[in-house]
Write a structure and sequence with these properties.
heterodimer; A: 90 residues; 2 helices; B: 877 residues; five-stranded parallel beta sheet; three-stranded antiparallel beta sheet; 5% strand
Chain lengths: 90, 877
Amino acid sequence: MSRYIVERTFTEGLRILVTEAGAQTCLGVVDRNADLGVPWSFSYVSADKRKTLRVYDGPNPEAIRQAAQRNGLPVDHITRVTVLDPYFYR
Amino acid sequence: MSTTIETDLLERGPFLVELEQRLEESRVAGRLVLLGGEAGVGKTALLRRFCLLHRETARAFWGACDPLFTPRPLGPLLDIAERTGGALEESLARGAKPHEVSALLLRLLRSPSPSIIVLEDVHWADEATLDVLRLIARRVEAVPALFVASYRDDELDRSHPLRIVLGELATLSAVSRLRLPPLSPAAVGALARPHGVDAEELFRKTGGNPFYVTEVLSTGGAELPPTVRDAVLARVARLSPPAQKLLEYVAVVPTLVELSLLTRLAGEAFASLDECLSSGMLHAAGDAVAFRHELARLAVEEAIPGHRRTALHGAVLSALANSPMSDPAHLAHHAEAAGDAEAVIRYGRAAGDRAARAHAHREAAAQYARALRFADRLPPEERAELLERRAYECFLAGELDEAIEAQGRALEDRRRLGDPLKEGDSLRSLSRLLRFVGRIAEAAEVGREAVALLERLPPTHELGMAYGNLSHIFMTAEDAEGTIVWGTRALELAQRRDDVEVLVYALTNIGSVELASGSPEGRRKLERSLELAQRAGLEEPAGRAFLSLVWWPLLRLRQFDLASRYLESGLEYCSEHGLDLWRLFLLACRARLQLDQGRWAEAADSAAFVLRDPRSWPVPRIFALLVLGVARARRGDPEVWPPLDEALALAEPTGELQPISPVAAARAEAAWLEGEHEAVAQTTGAALDLALRRRVSWVIGELAYWRWRAGIKEEIPPGAAEPYAIQISGDWKRAADLWIQIGCPYEAALALADADDETGLRRSLEELQRLGARPAATIVARRLREMGARDIPRGPRASTLTHPAGLTSRELEILALMAQGLRNSEMARHLHLSSRTVDHHVSAVLAKLGVRSRTEAVAEASRRGLLAQTPQVHTEN
């Protein structure tokens, strides 16, 4: 398993209402991702809601793209990342 | 069985309902359910109950795979044939192949009332049975039958053959998966209560596994054995001494034990059978018995002291040896456990032959290896023959190092025996294996030795094959002259001796180099070779002819029409005939074709499929690695270099153009996209020299092109293929047109990236963005900005990418027709496509929507609002 950050642009802005429907939308994504072995950890959303940075664990970039496609989500860029801990070097 | 605790209905209701639904669907179109679960979770109990519930309306057939060291080929089908008799039984008796067996079985099931066919424990299945499963999955919709294949999902390691099959079947509409989970704490509590057992503790120790739970409770409930093994042994200890003895006999036979056999083995102890049955340790199945559970059998077998176990196996061996019906794989198993060398050799060889006939190559190789472990005492002639058979089966199973090792040992024996015909043939086989792993120089040397030796004799089939082998080695090196010289010798000999196999071999080699050089005569030769091979039932040479008709057009001519024409039919032929080697080659070709056509997601999928195969055939692996690396590089995804580095490590030692040049081109492309222009010169130099020496124009062109892109100033090398040469010379417009004609959209867009006007660059950018080629698009956008252009698009709008879950317009059409309830054949007629193509699209739609059935697809599509966007299609008639 590697960790990836996926950048997405939503030109119209991302709107997920805090309603039952909104919850269903998110859980649907969680379910489909779990099927592919690409659990969705969490996302950062820009203030204007046009840009998201999502953190994923997955086996390879293809699985990330496949998950995006199944969920009908755009992909700008996938970056593989590791954690740099500022206190590691002390 | 009074002491047996019934757990099989607890928490199993939903699974029975699910199976019932599948059975209902199967009345219209057959279904295959893959039922997974850990050992002891109650798969068999569930299926027994299910068959019982539907016994009035559906016939049930059961076949089981055995936990032998090496399984018997088509074991479960033999069980089923025993019940059906007739054509199926006859065909199995004469060693029918998987595609014949599956066809016969499906024909048998064509009846008005549905059947349930249970294939138990397919994680133990041999390759031939897995082939049958594959074929059934693709055809089952034609018959009213519900197939259920059960397996232990906790025993499938990464390279388990069943895992590959499960992956392949995942997207078929007729196939669904069902996983049986262990019992919940509540259910365990319900079971434990009457026994006064601490339910929490019981759940902790058993993990809710019904078998463990049952076993633990059956041992008396008051005591809690630390392991199931102890539980089993404790139960055994409570039986009378003769019953314990009887259990030992049953335990050393890893399958059902016929009662007739058991009487002979156990003598007086046989009288205790009822005791064993009523204790719940054994259960009866027709006129045979077995342990209620494999785990119990293992526990009992392991507890037998070594010397006694040997004696028991010896007793089973001699009892079985007297019966003409005995399976040699069973006999070999007992012979080895009994340490009876002579019997291991005899039965191991027979079992290997039988497995080889059934295309179960891995099993065949293992059975021959078993016999060879005792081969010190064999005369060299017999040992050499056994080694040669093993080498061939290892080769077919993709175990190449083992194949070379066995063939080398066979050659030593042959040299000692001094029969030049057999020695020459053995040399030729070794040469072939060496060529296959890319040790070309050694292959040529050994191949020449074979010819020299065989030429001392009058012309033979073996000499013809040795000529063909040398021709093949030159063909691999793309040396047309050498290929034709040796191929012609083979051809003349074939005509003189009327030898079809040699003829096919020679035609494929000569045809390949002619086709690669662009001569239409080459294609005619290959098509003739294919036809002759198929007519003569030469399956492997036919597979190779298919591959040649795909490989050369794809890689040396870029004629995608021709390559596609033989790709799908070749894949089908190779699947049906168990030609896994050529199938993987063709799959690698498919990945490459999809990459060239700009279908990168599909290309990466196809490549991943090849890479999942645990067998170590190098060339398909190299090509799949390259496709994966390049697809990532073009999309700007991470992890470009690990696959490209592995490909380099595999290709470099061969020194051969065929593997080396695509690796060089792929690495140059990836380096250029990363802006590492200096790396390109060093990456491509040696490969370009080699290509120039061999005069392979597409390779010269491609490598020269990347060097030019990286800013290396040099003359356009002679022989460079047209679109590349034209591009380098500056005519980007014509180069782009040529790439479009060839069918390579990415190359065309890159050609336009050299445009000196804004219009051309904008077209390039738009096309690159459509393809999702982010790094190249960034380069072009920068050029536009430098030119002073404004309003440069940032990429496809999210709405176009989110459009229909990435479905193509054709797939949207298919989806709309699905929603209207059309069958595949009706869709095919409606869209003027072949049924197979429609099948393919339907699978693609299901995969992209992440669903398993057409019904789910329509539901999912309407949920996502995909159906509203597609035009209604008017049905004809």
